[in-house]
Design goal:
This protein has 114 residues and is mostly helical. It has one domain. 77% of the residues lie in helices and 0% in strands. The radius of gyration is 42 Å and the shape is rod-shaped. It starts with 6 loop residues before the first helix and ends with a helix.
Amino acid sequence: MIPDIGWSEMLVIASLAIIVIGPKDLPKVMRTLGQWMGKARAMAREFQKSFDDMAREAELDDLRAQVEALRKADPLQAAKKALDPEDELSALGHDLAKTVEEPAEAPKSQDEAS
């Protein structure tokens, strides 16, 4: 923001200040100017700090929303859906359970058949 001022420009500004303000009042003016600059820098720091705090707050809100979404989600169900999207393994498991529950008829021996 501050323009690039070299030593030659500073010398011109200092000589103009001595001529216009005078050597007697120059220290008072420089002190007042320094105080104003200090206040302006403090205001700029405060603005930057509040801007950083707002950005941090928005980031925290996003993180809170993500954590809440993770809490509501069922990771086990999501993993099952990812591994078996058409629920084929579950159907196979049900068929297998039915087969195990129903005792298979034992083949009759030839002695029993006669």
